[in-house]
Amino acid sequence: MIPLSLDPTFVRVAVAGRGRPALTRLQALRAGGAETAVLYSDDPPTGLPRDLGAVLRPHLPDAAALAELRLLWISGLPDDTAAGLAAAARDAGVLVNVEDRPELCDFHNVAEIRRGNLLLTVSTGGRSPGLAARLRAKLGCEFGPEWAERVEEIGVRRDQWRRQKRSLRELSVLTDDVLEAAGWLA
Length: 186
Fold this sequence. Notes:
Elements: E1 13-17, H1 19-31, E2 38-40, E3 56-57, H2 63-67, E4 71-75, H3 79-91, E5 95-98, E6 111-115, E7 118-122, H4 129-142, H5 146-163, H6 168-182
Parallel strand pairs: 1-2, 1-4, 2-3, 4-5
Antiparallel strand pairs: 6-7
Helix pairs in contact: 5-6
């Protein structure tokens, strides 16, 4: 596995599926900044929030839709439908994740903790989502909501240090000094 953090403003992503699993995946993508992500569903989930109505396409993606994508999450579809859609997406050059079907995945989802701009992730490469979830919960206890503000504070300082033309090594030392003085990782 190769860990990456993608900026969704530069990568066209979508979810194809049915029911609550598809909606949950779409909401997770949007929480990660994928504001242009769409949901392709031939059986849309009930209770779709109003703000997501505009991103619903009431059908599964066809070849033209797949040609516009770079990443596709498939969720809540029967195995044969999911496998066929995954193959069509790959033929179009789209990377695919089929929920709970590691053998059909080009990439796996990480268990994540979001604290503002701080993103902590855990992956088992699809081998044990339950273990990843337990580790995520443990990290969530250790890195609470206060870390969002801490990241912003260090970010503001780093911006100042960069304007002072500090070297990468100096930035690292200064960051360590802030962490030590505050006792945030003690």
